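Long-time lurker. I teach an intro course on protein structure, and each term I like to show students one example going from raw sequence to a predicted 3D structure in token notation. This year I'd like something fresh instead of my usual example. Would anyone be willing to generate the tokens for the chain below so I can use it in lecture? Attribution to the forum is fine with me.
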Amino acid sequence: MATGRAMMRAVRVFEFGGPEVLKLQSDVSLPVPKANQVLIKVHTCGINPVETYIRSGTYARKPDLPYTPGSDVAGVIEAVGEHVTAFKNGDRVFTLHTISGGYAEYAVASADTVFPLSDKLDFKQGAALGIPYFTASHALFQKGDAKAGETLLVHGASGGVGIAACQIARVYGLKVLGTAGTVEGMNLVLKNGAHKVFNHRKKDYLAQIKETAGEEGIDIIIEMLANVNLANDLLLLAKGGRVMIVGSRGPIEINPRDTMLKESSIRGISLFAASKEELGECAALVLAGIEAGWLKPAVGSEYPLEKVTEAHRDIIHSQGALGKMLLLIH
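-- Reply from a regular --
Happy to contribute to a lecture. Here you go:
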């Protein structure tokens, strides 16, 4: 299928390891969409913490080497494969997943993981939609059984998933509490739906959360760093409370007794495990939120492809997240 060029720039990983294994190459063959697939000219690609775990080789899901990282891109349809009727060349789109990898000038994706990008959002915002908003929706409703009137704590709320969870939960009638590690992060969380925000670098912040939640406690916690916070999370929960583990960077010791009296539960979250039906429900929520005007992704740090190694270091070691981290490509 002719696309006007045969080669592209893309980041390739030939061995698992630190950020230095991310190699930007300029002679990568342009991917060709097969049946039910589309080729996207990538304008922007989101960077997610899970991509650093996969790159390091420590994640349960390991791609075959070599590979190009990146899932949620925003761009323009460059070509369509056979049987694709929902999209045409030139359509603005965003994805939840790519087949060939998003850290590249062009990416192939299955048509059923591609969605129209509203004119209300730019490409940077489009690349902040897929993983963050689908993860937040999946965690809140499909796995967390969130209900209007419940109290939610987003533990680490200033990043992509955290901002998404705050926006969604606020619209759906929950009392939203969030934490962040910087003043800038705290202000961002407040601007995006949280009723109250706490600085999780302060020693007494857990006591402040308990005081705000009252005797009933927290119904749902969306946890971004379970290896640090899970034991304390269990002490914050209400009867029947749920901790939704979105992120963890290692093991932690907990006391199972802390779950017993309250009959609380710990639930792991991974979009990789979500069914097509669940992803379809998430898509409906996201598209409706964009159309209604309340769903507005917060864009954070931006990096060119040439600085992808720096981006992978920063997403893990920065002092505090401020919206969705992005790679700018076109």
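Some talking points for your students: The chain has a mean pLDDT of 95. The radius of gyration is 20 Å.
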